[in-house]
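User: I want to check something. If I give you two sequences, will you return the structure for each one separately, not as a complex?

Assistant: Yes, each is folded on its own. Here is the first sequence with its structure:
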Amino acid sequence: MLSRPLRRDALALGCALAAAAPACTGAVRRAPAGPALDASAAAAADDSIRFIDDDYTRALSEARVRGVPLFVDAWAAWCHTCLSMRAFVFGDPRLRPLSRRFVWLSIDTERADNAALVTRLGVSVLPTLFVVDPRDERVALAWPGALTAQELAAMLERAAGGAGPEGPLAVDASVARASRDGRFAECAATAAREAPRMPPGTALADVLRSGIECAGRLRDDPSARRRLADLAALGERVASDPAQPILADDRSDLFDYVIGAYRSLARDDDAGRLALGWAAFLEDQAARAPTAQARAVFDAHRLLAYVAIGEPQRAVPMLEQSERDFPADYNPPARLGAAYLALRRYDDALAACDRALDRAYGPRKLRVWSLLADVLVAKGDVAGARAALRAAIEFARGVPLTGRYPEQLEVLRKRLAELR
């Protein structure tokens, strides 16, 4: 499964993974609430959203007893957008009026005991937010991606009344559906037509990213290249406008997509200029984050940005700090492995990959082995790279491969066959 948007997941492993909070334990947890509440707000804390972690049967039973819908957050520890929702949205006071109108369930999609539910729900994009009718387990709403607290509250109000997304969010859903179905020309054309007249918000950022992705796939078509240029220009204006009401993680994604579009259009000077602004934006967001978990949300994109400006060494101190802050988490050492690879510090990269493999779980380990193979190939150890790929393929036989992991397994098999 991939974090939305999808394009960068296939780059270096460290550029696709996201630093995680401690692994789910199956206990009830309180959603992150940001800065500590003062005494006057203490009473409101009783209305904070409480998630049940990784126990669908219990959550469904509770929803049936209470006669309320079931909200499901399908997430993964590597998904920076998922962690952004946890750090900046679910604890927002604007969601408290809804806390008792739903039963709240989080599902770690990498856990083997959640694989059947992940497959039944059809999770292929992370995060995906579901509303399930507990009476017959019908999915009343499936939203792939992030939303601000205000947008999520409005969507859930509509879902509780039996209505789906409307207005800009309906356009967003339509464009995303065309992209997922491979209708790239339709996706790009709709995005280019609708984006200039959409109001500010997450839907606009999503449509721009989807449109850029689709137009980029058709870049040999002159009309698609024109659309790509137009979407990139609007995307830069939106990403650079601090008044846009979108999550910092979504703004960062948009920076990433526009930079990729500029490179596709051979506008390297524009890409380099915007990459510098992207890195500065992310450093500011990380500096202002209220907790270590919130700061680490930006690790994946900061690594990408530093690579984009040709300074991957700037990622090392922040990732070392995240590894100290979250010693059980595989994401910081995995990203360090990618940073060290970019710096040609191959022995350090191998050590970081070993630490990541020791801590990783579920099918995401395939990505760590893939990175390990990259490092070994760069070091000239083709036999070692083949052994790493064989280990990944063997491991995959014993774990459920949900979402798009079967495609990743085929990539590994093809790569092994080509390594001679």
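And separately, the second sequence with its own structure:
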Amino acid sequence: MSTEVVVPTLGESIAEATLGQWLKQPGDAVAADEAIASLETDKVAVEVTAPVAGFMGAHVVTEGTTVNVGAVIGLIESGSGTAAALKPAAAAPVVSAAPVVEAVVDDPGDLTLSPSVRRVVLEHGLDPTKIKGTGKDGRLTKDDVMAAVAAGPVTTKAVAAPVAVAAPTAARGEERVRMTRLRQTVAKRLKEAQNTAAMLTTFNDVDMTEVMAARTKYKDLFEKKHGVRLGFMGFFTKAVCMALKDIPSVNASIEGDEIVYRNYADISVAVSAPNGLVVPVIRDAQELSVANIERTIGDFGKRAKDGTLTMEDMKGGTFTISNGGVFGSLMSTPIINPPQSAVLGLHRIEDRPVVRDGQIVIRPMMYLALSYDHRLIDGREAVTFLVAVKNAIEDPTRLLIDL
């Protein structure tokens, strides 16, 4: 008996997704509610779980295919898995988003190769069953295949049809990889932001001496008490919340012919994920302590790497902080995240000569960049906001007395 696996409801206004990866192959044992596939939506990856226990049947849809909510993507068979289940059922033809490279003859059904891996296998005439996979569930990666090529001869297999392959060269090569849905959405939204907003960026620099001294002095006690490391984002988030209260237009947005002002700060923070940057939201950041902010950001970072962020985590946000400094960025002009009206870019800290009390001294300096929608925020407000953040970071006592 077969049970259909369908695309679950993905959230408000999201009607389709891309099948990113099958986590279970035909014939694999499956427990009820166990993750069997990963879907890529416009914002995050969503796991599809098995509706019943049994074993994985046919994959109705291949990786990379766009699917709608409610569409059947696979089958769960009752029982405990058999060799026959390793081959796709005739009644469930595989749907492919693009032509598939000719498979290796006698390629076992339970050995699923990604397009890039299959191409390398075919180019070198390798037998993939003779190569040990190091990917998830033992799947072959491109690195596995290339390591096998470098290690020496590997048993080859004949191909079903001749495949014309250009002679490999040492200096030149290309690989075409389908854009993930997340990357497509990011590209579309960033371009929309440029086309819609009257975007402008203003810069300042900030002396990190006092914050770095406070961090050095208290980081061990802080971690011991709160169970989280003391970073710089907690200071900057508190400084931003304080500045947003003084300059409310930076926390506002344009909706039609109205301006929406907010008395709360939901701060979006850009964190790195395997498929690119994602922007989860710290809710009511103005009410949180530095410890709670650091704890929330740390949790976001971990879940971004694990692929367990939800769409609820990404929803909303009134202002964004993007820290390119962790990647070594010296200066940038960040793009706002609509419908937000501003984004603060942080950059790397480096020792630079500055003048203090008429003397040239070396200080750890960071460039700050505020990109904003000039339709709503004028230059005076943008500069005043950025100076308020600078002052709070250079004299952290201001954060305690709200000055």
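Because they were folded independently, the notes below concern the second chain alone. Residues 64 and 249 are 42 Å apart (CA to CA). The chain is about 25% helix and 25% strand.
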